[in-house]
Amino acid sequence: MSGDVYNLADCILQQAVVGSGANTLFLSYLKHSLCAHLISHAAVLKRIAKFEHLDRYHCMGELLDFLEQIIGGVTCRGKQEEGALTKAMLALVYWLMQIYEHALEVFSENNRALNSEQQQMVEKLGLVVEKLAQSQFLLGVVYVGKFEDPELYGLLVKKYELIDNLTAASGFVPPVVSQKNVTINDYLRKAALIDSDTLEMKEFDGRGIEPITYCLQPLIAIEILFNPNCDTQTYVAEFMSIQRLKGYTLSRLYCEIIRACLISLNNVNGTTRESFICAFTFIKVPHILRQIHMQSRLLNPTEYEETAKLDYSPEIVEAFELLLQDSPILDLMDARCACNTVECLLNEMLKNHLINEKQMKMIAARREQDTTGLQKLELNTNQHSIVKFVFRAEPPLVGILKTLGSDYNKVQEALLGMLLQVLSGNSFELILSVATVQGKLKTFISGLIKCNEASKQIPGEMGKVALARAALFDVSFLMLSFIVQSYGSEVVLAENGDSFFEKWVRECLVEKHKSKSPAVMVKLCDQNKVDELIVSLNSPEGLKGSSLKWHEICANIPGLLYQVLMAWENETLSTPEIKKFLDSLKSRFCCFSVCATSWLCAYMQVVRQDELLKPMNMVQQFLTAVSADELMQQENFKERLGLTVQIVRKMQQDFQRLPGTSPKLRTMLQSQNLVSQNPLEEQFEEVWKNVSERGWLPIDSTLVLENLLQSCGPFWLVDKLVQQIFHCKYIREMNKTMDIVFAIMHLDIERCTIALLSQLVPMMLLNKLQLSEIVDPFSRVLAKLCVYCIVATMEAPTGPLSKKRSRATIDGDDLLADGLCPTPKMRKMGSDSCDSSSSDFMLEHAAAAAAAVAFATKEAASGGVSLREPLQGCLQTLFRTFAQYIVSDELSPKIYFMFQFLSLLVEVGRERVKPVLKLIPNGLVQSMLKINATDDMTVGFILRLYDLNATTGRTFAMSDLCLFRNIQMRKDSIKL
Question: Where would I find the H helices in 201-231?
Answer without folding.
Answer: 216-226
